[in-house]
Design brief:
single chain; mainly alpha; Herpes Virus-1; two-stranded antiparallel sheet; 3 helices
């Protein structure tokens, strides 16, 4: 199980496929947004917690989503978004 190093929550399928920084440090979408929100409040630029490079929204890379994990999320009883790790599968 992969966890976000900031909040320690499980990384969902899209978190695992999203690279926000060139150093490929993986965090969840919630923490990435929190970094941007906090930087905006301080009138600064959000930076990667690992390498301190300023985030550039134009340089976000998406890797191929693991199809088995995707199918597991979609087929969870109760519908999309209720499985652990699938809450933010597509934003």
């Amino acid at each position: 199980m992969d966890e976000c190093p900031l909040c320690m929550e499980e990384l969902d399928v899209t978190d695992k496929a999203t690279l926000y920084c060139q150093c490929e440090y993986q965090i969840c979408a919630f923490c990435w947004q929190q970094l941007h929100d906090n930087a905006a409040k301080d009138n600064t630029i959000a930076k990667c917690p690992n390498c301190r490079t300023p985030y550039d929204k134009d340089n976000i890379r998406m890797l191929e989503i693991d199809q088995e994990e995707y199918v597991e999320c979609v087929q969870t009883p109760g519908g999309w978004g209720l499985a652990v790790g699938c809450a933010d599968a597509f934003w």
